[in-house]
Amino acid sequence: MLPNTITILSKNYTIILNDGWKFIKSKLADPNVTYVRVDGTGSCLADLFDFLMKIIQACEFRNPATPLVKYIR
Prior knowledge:
This protein is an alpha+beta fold. It has one domain (about 5-70). It is about 30% helix and about 20% strand. The protein is built from 2 helices and 3 strands. A 3-stranded antiparallel beta sheet has the order 1-2-3, with helices on one face. Strand 1 and strand 2 (about 15) form a beta hairpin. The mean pLDDT is about 80.
């Protein structure tokens, strides 16, 4: 099973699974692509941070809750 995001810090890009979680499929040039590559100066850390924050938010709202807040304070 492939991960939802792969960040390559040395090359400054992130590959993100096109499952509708980060991108709106209908707004992409080809909505049927499996992965979307996001590159550019400084973009890979911002994309990785955004992905990790979405994971934390998803875990906070699941039932029973995952107590991630106590680990990030």
